Amino acid sequence: MTDSPIRFGIIGCADIARKVSRAILLAPNATLSAVASRSIDKAANFAKANGFPPEAKIYGSYDSLLDDPDIDAVYMPLPTSLHLKWAVLTAQKKKHLLTEKPVALNVAEFDEIIKACEENGVQIMDGTMWMHHPRTHKMKEFLQDKDRFGQLKTINSCFSFFTDPDFLKNDIRVKPDLDALGALGDEGWYCVRSILWAADYELPKTATALRGPVLNEAGVILECGASLQWEDGKTATFHCSFLQSLTMNITAIGTYGTLHLTDFVIPYQEHQASYTASAKPGFNELVTGWTPLPSQHTVTTDLPQEVCMVREFAKLVQDIRKNGAKPDKKWATISRKTQLVLDAVKASIDKGFQPVEIVN
């Protein structure tokens, strides 16, 4: 007997919800069942514009959707400042939670959300889509190859995009009462996650913000960077910005090899993504070139990465509903470590760029 698809409700009609609505429609084990906005007209228009099935329910309040017994899981693309309230309510209503990142404004709020999820037996996952791309798994195989890559030594990650004056004035990501972490929460989350991913989720010992962050008049970060240090000598740096050209780079350097890619958050193309691996490179005899040359690897996928994310989340929910499984703590653990590093970077900025110890 085929498992019933997981019935999703969406609370909030943010732009990113268009992409995830499509992903839910494309996922083989999920279906769009409802959408809610504070304006029922906005919810209805969103459903119409994004191909919701005709039987999907339209709600003019978030509470109404959460009270619907026919909803199994909620996707929450709300501003970060609203996550604590609505994530806790979602869990208390026994709905599984796929939430946009950052999960919370700080780890204290994060822990309240996780506590509610654990008490109510619901699955939580954050919407870091690239984690679910098949390329990510192939790259990890290279990083774990002790002969070709060796021991991880340093990581550099960058995510930036150039925004216009309207964004810098009106977007929720620059409003202190909506998304107070600014570029650090929106883009830095991806950078920190990529660093932790490369380091097998071993937390660094300290984070030190780089001098010269750019803040708007309300004190929200528009651009910043940081260096991270591990007890064993590993190091990492990252940079995130709303003020620079679209860039999505990871470079991970080991004793013998280097991994490099330039589109880690969103691949250049939906159905294929590449990375470059260099293993034990050197110079030719006259030092006029490299040998061996780095190798380029292309990974194809039938489903875009956001669909892979929804499919994985829905699979976990199905296992809970059908087999009585416990929620998988892997994703909450990874999210919490990401949040901890963000907290430390923000604290380092606030403390005049002093090193801040990261305590799990």
TrEMBL record:
GFO/IDH/MocA-like oxidoreductase domain span: 139-259
Family annotation (InterPro entries): Gfo/Idh/MocA-like_OxRdtase_N, GFO_IDH_MocA-like_dom, NAD(P)-bd_dom_sf
Entry's family note: Belongs to the Gfo/Idh/MocA family.
Classification lineage: Eukaryota, Viridiplantae, Streptophyta, Embryophyta, Tracheophyta
Pfam families the record matches: GFO_IDH_MocA (PF01408), GFO_IDH_MocA_C3 (PF22725)
Domain Gfo/Idh/MocA-like oxidoreductase N-terminal residue range list: 6-125
Organism for this UniProt entry: Hibiscus sabdariffa (roselle)
Name of the protein described by the UniProt record: Gfo/Idh/MocA-like oxidoreductase N-terminal domain-containing protein
